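Entry 14. Structure prediction run on the chain below.
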Amino acid sequence: MHEMTKGANIGLAALSEDTGSVIVSLSWSSAAGAGDADVSVLLLGGDGRVRSDADFFFYNNPASPDGSVQLLGKTPTGSGSEDRISLDLTAMPADVDRAVLAASQYGDARFGELDDLRLTLSDRAGEALLGYTIAGASTESAFLFGELYRRGEEWKFRAIGQGYETGLAGLATDFGIDVDDANEDVPVEEGAGQTETTGQASAGQAVSAAEVAEALDGVPEAASAGAAPSAEATVPRARRPRTAKKKVTLPRAEKKSLAENDSWRTARLFPAGSLKSDREREGRATSVLLSVMAEVPEFGRRLTAGFGAPAGRMQTFTEVALPHGDGPRRPDGVIRVERAGKLWTALVETKTNGNALRSEQVQNYLDIAARRGYEAVITLSNDVALEGRPLVQVKTDGRRKHKVVLWHLSWAEVTYQAQTLIRHEGVGNAAHAWLLQELLHYLQHENSGCHGFQNMGPAWVPVRNGIDTETLCRGDERAVEVVESWERLIRQVCLRLGGELGQKALPVQRGRRGTDPHARRTVLADRLCDEGRLSAELRVDGAPGVLALTADLRTGKLRTSIDTPVPDGSYPLTSAKRLIRLLAKAPADLHVETLVEGDNGPRGTLERLRPEPADLLPKGGAAITGFRLSLFKGMGATRGSAASGFIRSVDEAVDQFYAHVVAHLPAFERRPAPTT
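Output returned:
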């Protein structure tokens, strides 16, 4: 990999023959697990300015209609996160001269609080071509990492490393984005958000980008759930770029049923109730998914851009017979994308209902793909891939000139992408939104077999028994397997929660920089043996703090908690009363603990504290730094996702805590519901 220095540039053609589509990764880390940033892309014309506000891409405007730019979202790394961007340079409009790659911090946060600021650029096959590390960040709240620019027919990369103390708004203004300075209230039309809505806010609508929209506390709670706000409701107009392209989403609330009674079933495009065997489930799931990918460009592009596919005409096929050895092999599906007379092709191998991928089968498909000139093999199953832990063991023949890349998708990721598009970002027309809703209904049907990660594995019961009998010892590989299953479950919880909320949700990875993933999991496994607990932290956009989750295998209890700070300069009793008032609808058994510097303060249940908020005040007048809110619930015993299962109990614990506690805290910034 070619390492860049600030100000240096290099032609992409000198690094690889396959740079028509590239993946740019912006990453950072934090030993404390805190801190995050958002990526953005600006397309500039020959004058160094955007052609229009639509050339600014961020999380509320994540993709261009032509597929030239797509923000792929975050993935957790050893001690931080990585934000990926897909850039199809062959689809880039001819009047675009540069693509600027940037990132920005939230609120008062600064890049000096993060470590390892780094950009990596990979070719279509996923091979890293160049890297650029930014050193010396301090008070900047936005950074230009680099840019891709044209020189004749060639694309080149330049390492920039320029910081902005004025945040994303200052950066955007420099490149010609129209940023509103006013903070006046704008009336919201009655009935907005019910039918046709916009995934990118038009003029007069608030956009909750970091540093660009800081006034979202005034958005009515009903708006965030997709309901229509009242005619008198107002949305503060924040400093933000304007975009005007309208897209279609579907309302969360279903229309009143016309059925005579509850036994009538709504006709579905993709029925799942009649499926009886795993073979039927795999065949139906593959056909349903691939057909919707081909018919809904935004969805198909969203799932394949990260695999190096160009933006173009997509066709999909199932049960294709391909010659191999003594007889033909039949992969579950084939994806073909055409752009400018060139084909990108991938084989698809699908598993449902918790069935595992088989190494021999995947190896055969890799060999077939290499011989036939296909670019990728995509595996799709209930399992969630982990960093440094391949789902299947395969061998790659390095002597072959043509490279085939093995990628993996989980059904949870597919569900997340469908839900994000139809509930939060929008698609091109109402028919596409309806198709995605039918797909989502199928994926979530109890008989589809597409429910995501649903089994804690064979080591779960022995490890629980070993903890109960205190016979589980450090170094036991079964404990490492349980830690890996726990990590997969937490990743899936983040996908599900993020899809429901329309917010980014990521697991927090705490650890030393550069720690090997297996070594980190071994440390956590030893801790599990010593303490009998599995712990995780989730960072959700807009939440007042990190959501902590602990499964105590000794007591059989799940604890969900969050630390919320007190407003600066507030009186202790005023803070306590305000907190109790905000938690008026929270469960009575919610535990509230006062946090003081260097010690734990008073604690009690909400039921006991409601009549006496002063009981939260520490003795001796110690300064209060915040409050810790915790809910406890019983933990499922079995390793599966049945009603009595551990996985189901974790999902329910997180959902209950978020809905009844976190959503009512003042620092929870809701993104405005899309409105016409």
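The longest helix spans residues 477-501.
Filed with the rest of this week's runs.
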